[in-house]
Specification:
The protein is α/β, with parallel strands linked by helices and 240 residues long. It has nine helices and seven strands. Strands 1-7-6-2-5-3-4 form a seven-stranded mixed β-sheet. The two termini are 28 Å apart.
Length: 240
């Protein structure tokens, strides 16, 4: 309980203390988005690492060598906790935006950070807005910015791997970027399974071999979502 309170207090203080800074960076982002990202990413990564430390998370990471350093990628991962974002974001070698639910923007200060860090918010009830988000993500990829999507659409409550929404993969198929499967274990055990208590947890994150979407046949593109899901499922089985 104490660790959870300390982590929440740190997060709140971080958002309050950095408010003037991120507001200035947000203004810069209107004309120079990449420069603004370069200014915002280091403190954001530091803050997320501190939260992870305060929650006593032990991290084992494999496959980082599979991430291309000279081009953007589409990360596809399984999702069971907000810690999936907290732990993977600092590992990204290039500017990376996450696809998130629109509810995440309800905190104004948090929204400033999300805007500057190329995050995209999705309203599942608005088909037109969802299409606009996918088109924006494709544009990000074409301009060298990676995107991280959890295609299950929501966090799984029992740890099982849900169905992958095929629409997420249009980002890679339309931009020609490779897909990086990402398997994440045990993040729900940190806090979600026993709120408000924080549990010391060892989390495993594995980055799979890139899937070059330009080389896929029409049939392979049609079944890409299921193929990537099967890969991540196999990675999770190996990790457990």
């Amino acid at each position: 309980m104490i660790r959870a309170i300390i982590a929440l207090l740190f997060a709140a203080l971080f958002l309050i203390i950095t408010l003037p800074y991120i507001f200035i960076v947000w203004l810069i982002s209107k004309k120079h988005p990449d420069k603004a990202y370069a200014l915002a990413a280091p403190p954001a990564m530091w803050g997320l690492r501190v939260v992870s430390f305060l929650c006593s998370v032990h991290l084992n990471v494999t496959g980082l060598e599979n991430i291309p350093k000279d081009r953007s990628v589409l990360y596809i991962g399984n999702h069971s906790s907000i810690f999936d974002v907290i732990l993977t974001y600092p590992l990204s070698p290039r500017p990376t935006g996450y696809l998130a639910k629109k509810e995440m923007t309800k905190v104004p200060v948090f929204k400033l950070w999300m805007d500057v860090l190329f995050c995209l918010t999705l309203d599942r009830s608005d088909t037109r807005q969802a299409l606009g988000v996918i088109l924006k993500a494709i544009d990000y990829e074409k301009h060298g910015r990676s995107v991280f999507i959890f295609p299950e659409g929501t966090r799984t409550k029992d740890g099982t791997l849900g169905a992958f929404h095929a629409g997420s993969f249009k980002v890679a198929l339309r931009s020609g970027c490779p897909v990086i499967p990402v398997a994440i274990t045990h993040t729900a055990e940190i806090i979600r399974d026993h709120i408000p208590f924080v549990k010391t947890t060892t989390v495993n994150i594995s980055y799979g071999t890139p899937i070059e979407t330009k080389d896929l046949s029409v049939e392979e593109k049609k079944h890409l979502a299921n193929h990537v899901r099967d890969i991540i499922s196999g990675m999770l089985d190996e990790m457990d």
